[in-house]
Amino acid sequence: MSADTSGERNVWQSFQPYLEKESLAAFFLGMSSGFPYAMIGATLTTRLAQDGIDKKTVTAFTLAFLVYNLKVFWAWLVDGVRLPLIGGMGQRVSWMLLSGVLVMAAVANLAFVDPAADLGSTVLAAVLVGVAGATFDIVIDAYRIETLKPYQLGTGSGMSQYGWRIGSAGAGALALVMSARYGWSAAYLACAAFALPAMAMALILGEPKRHRDPVARKGVSEVFGAVIGPFGEFFRRNGAWLVLLFILVHKVGDTLANLTFRLLFDDLGFSNDEIAIWDVGVGFWAYLIGVFIGGVAYAKMGLKRSVLLALVLMAVSNLSFAALAAAGHSNLGMAGAIGFENIASGYGGVVVVAYFSALCDLRYTAAQYALISASASVVGRFATGTTAGGLIESLGYVNFYVLTTLLALPGIVLFWWMSRSGLVDAAMGTAGEE
Fold first, then answer.
1. Which helix (H) or strand (E) holds 250?
2. Do 314 and 344 contact (CB within 8 A), yes or no?
3. Which structural domains are found in the chain, ordered by start?
4. Helices (H), 183-206
5. Of 95, 123, 147, 238, which residue is most buried, by most CB within 10 angstroms?
6. Minimal CA–CA distance to 305: which of 407, 418, 410?
7. What is the value of pTM for the model shown?
8. How confident is the model at residue 216 (pLDDT cuts 50, 70, 90)?
């Protein structure tokens, strides 16, 4: 076999896992998962800033994301409650359809509020999008994990991240472009259609083959078991509390930085079109490159080494925004900062999500992954909503982004120690087993 033929075969083997039906389904699930985040994240931040809302109030709106961190308290419903009328379609399918309709309705509600006229109604509308989006996420995550086979967790997580980025960036770009031409109400209504891909996948593929019912749902004791069972099983594992500590702290700096980028861009004088080109456009392609690198790295380097590298890259990426803040309004500087940050985030998203997915017990996929994903960003989101605006005003953007880099160091050190001590392997769940 010639070297050229061998090289082509290796390239094809790298791409082939991404074309399996389970991985393709993960892509469309991720697309629907990403768009509610954009509606109450960067898009709403831009909308509020353009309406003249002060920075402290704008960053306080990120507290709407805390609803995602509270989803653990109702995630057990997705595992343990059979819906009337449509429940016969399957536990995961029926919940996918219900939560998809709810998130579309919540986004439509947000479309018709006016932040300048009634800030209170805007807060309530944003929280409702958060509740509906969080419920949608619970179902999507459980469906993805139970649909993927163990060997597909890396590529499936990669495809999910591809979809998430397309859904988030696509909805964000669509909102910016349409708002400039038709107003924010029309922009949000158009973006609601991004809920449809996940609903379509549930109808096409049906109930996941790996789904296991945790309880018989016959009486009070069974319902009580559905509530506490997922957490009891997780915390009985060796090293579970340290794993949870890592989940809580590993992304503090990254979350704190990411939710303030649009404020930086606005203060540096970037227009909506420039943001759409450089932040959304360049960031989109850089993220896709990072996701592909992450899928390959997970397969070649293994879980522990690939995750450790991801933590380092995501920490360092925050420094690029300190450089952009120092440089001022620079399209090249923005492209470089956005490019590096998104490659690091894409890579990290694949390997970290694959690790978190493998931690789940298949009897409690929805509840346990809700616990994990909610814990992953709660500290950073709370810090952003309560202190980010004040920190930026007192420290300036350069020192603020240096601080976010330093805040990532505890997570790096903890995961390194967990890998060396064997706790990463000891705390794995059945989702990572053949």
1. none
2. yes
3. 17-432 (1.20.1250.20)
4. 184-191, 196-205
5. 95
6. 418
7. 0.75
8. very low
